Amino acid sequence: MPATPAALCTFRDTLYTSRVLVLLEAGRTLKVDKGQVAVASEDTVALEYLQGRKDFVAVEG
User: Fold this and answer.
1) Owning domain of residue 49
2) What's the domain count of the chain?
């Protein structure tokens, strides 16, 4: 049985259209492209990081 793909949560970057976000504690990066970054809905580290910043807004839908 194939694995179900993870749902994505998308955030709009209100400051930049392109940049790399460094998650030091997780040892990885997130890439903003065309003013947006998408992360898996179960990626609690990335979600907490993005939700805790004023320059990112969750995109509905």
Assistant:
1) 8-58
2) 1
